[in-house]
Specification:
By secondary structure, the chain is mostly helical. It has 8 helices and no strands. The two termini are about 15 Å apart. Helices cover about 75% and strands about 0% of the residues.
């Protein structure tokens, strides 16, 4: 388990987090979810290039996140032993989550491609569809964190507190489905519970998990089936 290429794979989580943060930092402040169609159109016409660059950066981040969850599945699956049920479940949910993100990104990119030609109503509809796709993808992201958290706690391969943090992250990301019911307030797609809390915990957990996995592999930590949490 001290293969240097495995360590490189574990580092991709760090790269993914950095790229996602850069993507958000480079985006102009978007209009509120309940903004009028004309406000949405004006925003995309004025910031078309910035939106497209941001989508490309987010897509690059998703690429490295996909690589990271594959490495994580390998390590936790080996630590679980047998069929690695929880790690496999987490990996599958991670794939669905990233697929959902790509669909959401694609709808936003489509809205920004020809906003003036599409008009305010079509452009607003594409942005709303993007938000709804991401909201309905919340259950997959919830399963990803819940299954990884349980795999970490039960296997003891990584520190138990990382597993508990994953369970907390799962709860807050589940709240993202609230976007379907509200376009303003804390559960909206720009609200604290509807977006920011889940995103912050997602980035924090991915960063910490990547760092801990790199260290564990560097120390020659070989996962063994049935390892107790006390051994971590």
């Amino acid at each position: 388990m001290n293969d240097r290429y495995l360590r490189y794979g574990a580092m991709t989580g760090i790269i993914a987090v950095v790229l996602i943060i850069i993507g958000f930092a480079g985006q102009p402040k978007p209009p509120a979810p309940n903004a009028s169609p004309s406000e949405v159109l004006t925003y995309l016409v004025d910031h078309r290039d910035a939106v497209h660059v941001g989508e490309l950066i987010f897509s690059a981040g998703a690429f490295f996140f996909l690589w990271f969850i594959g490495t994580l599945r390998s390590a936790l699956g080996a630590a679980e032993g047998a069929q690695g049920r929880l790690a496999t479940t987490a990996y599958g949910a991670g794939l669905v989550s990233v697929g959902t993100l790509f669909v959401g990104f694609g709808l936003q990119a489509a809205a920004a491609l020809h906003p003036a030609d599409n008009g305010a109503d079509v452009t607003r509809a594409l942005i709303d569809a993007s938000a709804m796709v991401l909201a309905l993808g919340a259950p997959a992201l919830t399963v990803f964190f819940a299954a990884n958290g349980l795999a970490i706690i039960r296997s003891g391969y990584l520190a138990p507190w990382l597993g508990w943090l994953a369970l907390v992250t799962a709860v807050f990301n589940a709240l993202g489905v609230g976007n379907v019911f509200s376009d303003h307030g804390v559960f909206a797609s720009d609200g604290f519970l509807g977006f920011f809390a889940g995103l912050f915990l997602f980035l924090l957990w991915t960063l910490l998990a990547s760092i801990m996995l790199v260290r564990k592999i560097g120390e020659g930590g070989t996962p063994r089936s049935g390892t107790s949490t006390a051994a971590s």
